[in-house]
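Q: Hi! Curious about what EVG1 protein looks like structurally. Here's the sequence.
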Amino acid sequence: AMMEESKLTCFQRRYLMDFVKRGDTLPLQCHPTSSKEPTPAFSPPVCQPSRLSTKPHLRPAKVCQAGDAYAREKFKPRARRDLEKEKQRLQNILATGKDVVEHKMKQTLVQTKEEEIPEPDRFEELVNEVQERKEFLAEMEALGQGKKYRRIVLTEISQKMREMEIIDKKRSEVMRDIMTKDIPGGNKS
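A: Let's find out. The predicted structure is below.
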């Protein structure tokens, strides 16, 4: 009855019943899943000062020197710049008093950068922006959010259209001036 009340596992009950059948005293601890005999309970020492030897643990000098601790790496110089270019540059400076080579290189680099990057046409950018806004508004209407964004998007589109009109007027004035200069005695109206 006591075993049932203490909620022991089947293994623990068998273990205890073996002790009872043999007539031995019951163990103080019954491990829940192990058939091993419980090890004698002793607590490990909480704080044992380590025993220091009287002899210091220093390595002899011969042992230290025999290792790689004192070996230095050999210096291996590397060319960090092109020495031939440096010689040519120095010759140019001494001959002309100026560093000619670098100026030419800088100018050619600047010229190539300017040639590679064409100026973006603002009118084309505006056309693309208007198209993007129209697509955005169509997507929002498809999602049922058209009322929320319609006023904002239409305002932005009208601003872009106004900017496009200004650019168009400037271009037409420039074209008109070019055309009147090309045609001598032409009608300016």
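A: A fun detail: Residues 40-45 have pLDDT under 50 and may be disordered.
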